[in-house]
């Protein structure tokens, strides 16, 4: 249920209503929009009558029920106000959300050594990426495949962060590693294979860094939004949803089927920012540019793209990784689409 306050409602009145709701055993959450304040209510609201609730204060404009099972993640809960996830990076605050330019996240599948991660960070930054990705802990299908360098790779990510000022995003697979990851990462990734690891979702929800939640490879949209709800219910409202391809019947030519139709669907259901990962989505470097362009045209808020200085030698996901040169060209191609849809940051012009 949500309480929509009238424009100009006094703060004391908003506080008074929130306190009254606490007294009724509900959890109120204040959402400050451009013009109005909305008080989202979570808890046992089934027996409450919205019309009666409206009588609580003359400053209440409307009381509405949230019909979706995902309450905090639903568009209704914020009365249509999009969430802006602010990420503090050494360089600047990076904002991911509908009212901001598209944010590109780029970097290798896994962190291999200091030289490669620092060099990749420098390349992708020069091309316009705002965040560096790189796996320290890797979820691999085979136990004999490279598993990531683990804790030592976190140190290498910290070095790349220091060297370039880029923010870092890296995956947590095991809750035991979360504290160490949070020390280095500006955004914590929950991978496709852990999307319904509910105990992990609760733990990333209880730490302060934004969470990049990948869609499970056979997850429905509702299951995905309920996973986001776990994180939000645990106290963390900063969730970015990332489509990374789903399993379908045909795996002959592409690794997954990138479901770009989630962009308009999610827009109608949630206020959370939407990212697209065309690298895992297709599994083939040659298909990544088209899908990245399509994602921006369809309204994505962020892209995650795998880039490796020498894809043929990559320890994981080489076939889907772009070279820095191809990534640079792609960013120029993307700028055309990005500008056409009014979502591209003008390049920073160096002062002479
Ligand atoms: C990754 O981003 O490297 C990764 C493992 O992604 P996903 O969870 O989407 O497979
Ligand atoms: Mn990968």
> How many helices?
11
Query: What portion of residues belong to β-strands?
Result: 15-25%
Overall average pLDDT: 96
Helix content: 25-40%
Largest sheet: 8 strands, parallel, barrel
Descriptive notes:
32% of the residues lie in helices and 18% in strands. 45% of the residues are buried. The protein has helices at residues 11-23, 50-54, 114-127, 151-164, 178-184, 198-205, 221-233, 262-269, 278-282, 288-297, 324-340; strands at residues 2-5, 27-32, 37-42, 60-64, 85-88, 93-96, 103-107, 131-133, 167-171, 187-190, 211-214, 239-243, 274-276, 302-306. It is globular, with a radius of gyration of 21 Å. It has 352 residues and is of the alpha/beta class. Bound molecules: phosphoenolpyruvate (PEP) and manganese (II) ion.
Question: How are the elements arranged and paired?
Answer:
Layout: E1 2-5, H1 11-23, E2 27-32, E3 37-42, H2 50-54, E4 60-64, E5 85-88, E6 93-96, E7 103-107, H3 114-127, E8 131-133, H4 151-164, E9 167-171, H5 178-184, E10 187-190, H6 198-205, E11 211-214, H7 221-233, E12 239-243, H8 262-269, E13 274-276, H9 278-282, H10 288-297, E14 302-306, H11 324-340
Parallel strand pairs: 7-8, 7-14, 8-9, 9-10, 10-11, 11-12, 12-13, 13-14
Antiparallel strand pairs: 1-3, 1-4, 2-3, 5-6
Helix pairs in contact: 3-4, 3-11, 6-7, 10-11
The structure holds phosphoenolpyruvate and manganese (II) ion.
């Amino acid at each position: 249920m949500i309480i929509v306050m009238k424009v100009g409602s006094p703060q004391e009145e908003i506080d008074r209503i929130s306190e009254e709701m606490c007294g009724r055993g509900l959890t109120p959450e204040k959402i400050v929009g451009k013009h109005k304040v909305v008080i989202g209510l979570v808890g046992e609201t089934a027996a409450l009558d919205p019309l009666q609730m409206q009588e609580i204060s003359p400053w209440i404009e409307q009381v509405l029920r949230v019909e979706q099972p995902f309450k905090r993640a639903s568009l209704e809960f914020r009365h249509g106000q999009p969430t802006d996830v602010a990420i503090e990076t050494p360089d600047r605050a990076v904002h991911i959300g509908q009212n901001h330019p598209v944010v590109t996240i780029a970097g290798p599948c896994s962190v291999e050594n200091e030289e490669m991660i620092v060099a990749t960070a420098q390349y992708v930054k020069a091309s316009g990426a705002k965040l560096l990705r790189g796996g320290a802990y890797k979820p691999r299908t085979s136990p004999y495949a490279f598993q990531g360098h683990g804790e030592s790779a976190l140190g290498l990510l910290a070095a790349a962060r220091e060297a370039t000022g880029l923010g870092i995003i890296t995956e947590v697979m095991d809750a035991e590693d979360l504290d160490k990851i949070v020390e280095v990462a500006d955004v914590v990734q929950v991978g496709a294979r852990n999307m319904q690891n509910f105990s992990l979702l609760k733990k990333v929800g209880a730490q302060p860094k934004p969470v990049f939640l990948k869609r499970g490879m056979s997850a429905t949209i509702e299951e995905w939004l309920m996973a986001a709800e776990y994180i939000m219910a645990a106290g963390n409202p900063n969730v970015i949803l990332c489509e990374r391809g789903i399993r379908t019947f045909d795996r002959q030519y592409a690794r997954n089927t990138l479901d770009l139709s989630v962009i308009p669907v999610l827009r109608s259901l949630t206020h959370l920012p939407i990212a697209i990962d065309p690298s895992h989505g297709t599994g083939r470097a040659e298909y990544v540019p088209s899908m990245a362009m399509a994602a921006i045209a369809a309204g994505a808020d962020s892209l995650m793209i795998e880039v490796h200085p020498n894809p043929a030698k990559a320890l994981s996901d080489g076939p889907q990784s772009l070279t820095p040169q191809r990534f640079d060209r792609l960013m120029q191609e993307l700028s055309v689409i990005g500008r056409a849809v009014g979502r591209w940051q003008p390049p920073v012009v160096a002062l002479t």
